[in-house]
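Let us work through a complete example step by step.
Step 1: write down the sequence.
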Amino acid sequence: MSLLPVADALAKVVSGVAPLPTETIPLHATRGRVLASAITALRTQPGFNASAMDGYAVRAGDAREGASLELIGESAAGHGYAGRVGENQAVRIFTGAPVPDGADTVVIQEHTRRDGNRVIVEAAARPGQHIRARGLDFAEGREALTSGTVIGPRDIALAAAMNHPRLPVHRRPKVAILATGDELVLPGQAIGENQIVASNNFAIRALVEAEGGEVLDLGIASDDFPALEAAIRRARTEKADVLVTIGGASVGDHDLIQTALTREGMRLGFWKIAMRPGKPLLHGRLGAMHILGLPGNPVSSVVCGVLFLVPLLRTLLGRSDAGPPRRKAVFARSWPANDVREDYIRARFLLDDTSDILKVEPLALQDSSLVSVMQHADCLVIRPPFAPEAKPGDICEIIDLRTAGY
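Step 2: predict the structure and record it as tokens.
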């Protein structure tokens, strides 16, 4: 099978993927969830003309410097004044309280003085001053939160103010994660002479959870068909929306995952893509379950997770943004010409107080097994196939790993 371009591979991964069903949950539990339908205000805020300051509610025409006004009552938050303000009258008012009928301005407390039952105006006030007009924040029926919004604290505050105790969100995708390989042991376990500590499954789990997914940990399967097939069947039994396998997708004698998946009925979408790192990426469907077979090298696994798993999860969640955003930067130093594969170079940012342009410096070691190098990378520099040699100052496109939270 020929190498598939990255853009074509991503299109296949998200093609025909529909957002997961909707569930309505309590407002306090919605942080990080994705809104399934637009939210409109169920009320107007404020529902009345409200004072923005402590002071006196009066008629603007009476609020002349030196005027003496009769104090006739008080309006506090939650306890408005029921009467009407007439000529040369004032009502003591506090922040957030309803402005009584007849009044059209508020003289702040600092611009008045009291003389028994009289209020002396020491600075004139203009109409509407220090009054929050009814509906200033929002009006009933206004659409404020759109479908596909990832709900954050500010969105929750707005939904609460609009009188929504519950919100409709898309169900979280259940992602089964299966690491494969006789060479793998979990952190803290005894390590054999020919073994290594598994790290990819932890990175992919964190990636899934950061994107709002629910993880089904299938552990580590040995390089034999019974173990692999048992794990695949468990993912199906527990109704995983996505099965992510790690390792075993290449062409070696111990790379069995594609055969195991095919035996279970997987319909292969593609295998092998024109990118570095991550060439042996596998994609398919097993019934309703999406399959992504990530490479075993740690950097390849994470890069493919960012480029393909994240857009898949976001599409399942109904998000309006399909993948991590890309931005422009410039090379801080030269970099060799590229070959047929799209390259994702691990790089760091350089601080330069003399320029507003973001500069990136590729890290010296780019081997896809180097976990420490990936951890030090601020971004991935995207090098298209057959890109010519890059020189300092040349423009490039990057994925900012820090902003994306990866």
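Step 3: interpret the result. The longest helix spans residues 298-316.
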